[in-house]
Amino acid sequence: MSIKVPGYGLVLLAVSQATYFDEEFLDWSYFKLFNEKKYQDETVDAVRFEIFKENRQYIAQHNRKWENGEVSFRIDINEYADLLNHEFNEMRNGNDQNGRSIKGSTFIPPMGFTLPENIDWRSLGAVTPVKNQKYCDSCWAFAAAGALEGQHFRHTGNLVSLSEQNLLDCSVSNNGCKSGLASRAFLDIKKEGGIATESSYSYEATQKLCRLNNATFGASDTGFVQLEFGNETQLAIAVATVGPIAVSLDSSSILFHLYHSGIYDNPLCSDTNLIHAALVVGYGTEKGIDYWLVKNSWGEHWGENGYIKMRRNAGNQCGIATKAVYPLL
Ligand SMILES: *[C@@H]1O[C@H](CO)[C@@H](O)[C@H](O)[C@H]1NC(C)=O
Ligand SMILES: *[C@@H]1O[C@H](CO)[C@@H](O)[C@H](O)[C@H]1NC(C)=O
User: Fold this and answer.
1) Which SUPFAM superfamilies match (predicted)?
2) Concatenated DSSP letters for 57-84?
3) Does residue 276 have an active-site annotation?
4) Which atom, in ligand 1's list, is nearest to the CA of 214?
5) Residue 214: CB within 6 Å of ligand 1?
6) Which ligand has the nearest atom to the CA of 106?
7) Which of 13, 24, 232, 285 is the most buried (most CB within 10 A)?
8) Where are the domains of the chain?
9) What is the CA(199)–ligand 1 centre distance, in A?
10) Per residue in 40-95, pLDDT tens?
11) What is the reported pLDDT for 3?
12) In the predicted structure, residue 12 carries a pLDDT above the cut 50
């Protein structure tokens, strides 16, 4: 475009830059307000703003691909948009990859079973509302409590929310806010004779002294079942016939942190770097793509009201079927 009046083009440019800056700045102000972010000083604020701007740009790029139908999910600014990828990974996961692994009972799938096309345990009443682990690596406790809530519901008909704080404080074979495994939590619950209800022992996002009192137990278990490593067919059979299943997965990508909606499909995802634990509460197919319906523990503002749909039957993507377990009652 040729601009005939000298200086006019320059003025236009300045205006458009100011508008762009304002939009970024407005988004930033809104982000801080909405997520109640308070930084210790202006320097920290400025550093966080830089990270936010980069993430914001990354989101815009990805979502252009989504609009063009090149990817199956959208990402968006959420409360983690001021964090670097590695900062996030240090605070909001917590699956123990290095610790002692224990063997559970073997899953024996029913004979001649035909899988339903989709299942959603939320609509069947087996899933409590989405919870938030906050800045504590306690995903393992949320996955364990979620799976036990499901099994307790199936056995008694009552959905009782169970206490992750109880597990943080009392599950001696796990490491509180540092990491853990759902399977070890099930064995500790068995040893202690039960797990408290959420309402009697509420979440504090930090490890404290164990305050176990059997008068407030909401459920208990007698051990756990382990599915065949990496077998998605078996995971689907278990989800369909047993209920919500605790799984481990690779959540390390920034695409996962900023996930908004659609089917998360990340071929670069690892099936061995399983830093996170979550709960598979169903599965289905959308526009020809199979997915797992996964309940996360990052609050209901994350993803699809706290849930994520993850690509299913694509070679155990993100290791979702690598370490799948559920408690025995
Ligand atoms: C609860 O704990 C008390 C004290 O340890 C014990 O005496 C009681 O038998 C327990 N009750 C049940 C139902 O396990
Ligand atoms: C996965 O599990 C299903 C159901 O138990 C079984 O039929 C199938 O052979 C298993 N696949 C592999 C590769 O082991």
Assistant:
1) Cysteine proteinases
2) HHHHHHHHHHHTTSSSEEE---TTTTS-
3) yes
4) 1
5) yes
6) 2
7) 232
8) 8-71, 85-328
9) 20
10) 999 999 999 999 999 999 999 999 999 999 999 999 999 999 999 888 887 777 78
11) 35
12) no
Hey, whose CA ends up nearest to atom 12 of ligand 1? 214
Residue nearest to atom 11 of ligand 2 (CA): 231
Mean of pLDDT values over 246-256: 96
Question: Quick one: pLDDT band at residue 13, thresholds 50, 70, 90?
Answer: very low
Q: How far apart are CA 149 and CA 139, in angstroms?
A: 15
The CA distance from 67 to 63, in Å, is 6
> How far is Cα 305 from Cα 298, in angstroms, rounded to an integer?
10
Tell the residue nearest (CA) to atom 10 of ligand 1: 214
For 85-328, CATH gives: 3.90.70.10
Which numbered atom of ligand 1 lies nearest the CA of 215? Answer: 1
Q: Which of 232, 233, 237, 241 to mutate to test the pocket of ligand 2 (most atoms within 8 A of CB)?
A: 233
> Ligand 1, from 192, 195, 214, 220: best to mutate by most atoms within 8 Å of Cβ?
214
Q: What is the pLDDT of residue 100?
A: 64
DSSP code for 262: E
Kindly calculate the radius of gyration of the chain based on its CA atoms and give it in whole angstroms.
Answer: 22
Our answer to whether residue 296 is catalytic in this structure is yes
The catalytic position among 89, 132, 139, 166 is 139
Joined together, the tokens standing for residue 112 give 């001649």
99: pLDDT confidence band, cut at 50, 70 and 90? low
Q: Identify the residue whose C-alpha is closest to ligand 2 atom 4.
A: 234
pTM, entire model: 0.91
Residue-level pLDDT at 21: 65
CA nearest to 94, candidates 192, 182, 195, 179: 179
